[in-house]
Structure to design on (229 residues):
């Protein structure tokens, strides 16, 4: 079964304005899919339907072959990981942040997640290492590092799909490259669906879904949609 499938999904908020119109797509169990489209196209709403924060008016949303309408919410929560744009950190230490969705993670799991997020060197240099308290300022983590830590945290949950809302802020090229690596690593383990704001992410994606006015305008690889460059 695909990691996520939308089949004829339509959705309106309470005021009745259609937000998604007959949207169908499916995501294989691995790989990075970029969802792009102008503001108001329905990208965030698509995420909210996958998480069942909203329910479709028509059509079905499936995760790992289960129609999520009938899935116990705890099960859905374990199948779907969400990395928010600003990736606010939880109070506590880096270790607690990494393991809150999987308290059974062992040292090897944690080390691997840190490596995938390219944070192993950074954490090794902190006097308290994994037990560094993040506090309000995130222990000096940059925006890109915060989002990578959030990716590592989500990977430790071992979800079927990771929903990632890419940071819109300008990132330096090293940070951007590290984020790109972290997304690629994550996409080797599960499906990653990213609301993409950066051209580099769109280029990196295995497939692109173009949403416009609540409809799927196109789905394909970068080359299929834009041509080689
Ligand atoms: P995107 O993420 O692509 O910018 P959204 O999914 O956030 O698009 O929004 C799609 C449309 O739904 C927009 O027209 C937006 O104004 C509307 N919308 C979003 N959230 C709500 C809400 N809670 N109530 C009513 N309309 C909403
Ligand atoms: P805005 O358009 O101002 O970003 P949103 O309504 O999109 O506001 O989001 C409000 C809050 O809910 C944000 O903190 C955001 O991170 C969170 N949020 C938005 N979408 C999701 C989602 N799909 N899953 C979990 N949290 C979400």
């Amino acid at each position: 079964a695909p990691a996520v499938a939308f089949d004829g999904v339509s959705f309106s908020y309470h005021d009745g304005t259609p937000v998604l119109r007959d949207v169908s797509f499916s995501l294989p169990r691995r790989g990075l899919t970029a969802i792009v489209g102008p503001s108001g196209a329905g990208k965030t709403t698509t995420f909210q339907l996958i998480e069942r924060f909203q329910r479709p008016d028509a059509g079905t949303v499936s995760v790992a072959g289960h129609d999520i309408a009938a899935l116990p919410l705890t099960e859905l929560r374990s199948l779907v990981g969400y990395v928010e744009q600003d990736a606010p950190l939880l109070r506590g230490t880096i270790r607690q942040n990494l393991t809150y969705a999987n308290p059974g993670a062992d040292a090897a799991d944690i080390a691997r997640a840190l490596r995938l997020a390219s944070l192993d060197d950074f954490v090794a240099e902190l006097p308290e290492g994994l037990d560094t308290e993040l506090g309000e300022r995130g222990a000096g983590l940059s925006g890109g590092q915060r989002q990578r830590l959030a990716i590592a945290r989500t990977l430790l949950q071992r979800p079927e799909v990771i929903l990632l809302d890419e940071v819109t802020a300008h990132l330096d090229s090293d940070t951007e490259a590290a984020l790109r690596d972290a997304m690629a690593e994550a996409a080797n383990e599960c499906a990653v669906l990213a609301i993409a704001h950066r051209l580099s992410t769109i280029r990196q994606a295995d497939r692109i879904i173009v949403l416009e006015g609540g409809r799927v305008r196109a789905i394909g690889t970068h080359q299929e949609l834009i041509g080689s460059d």
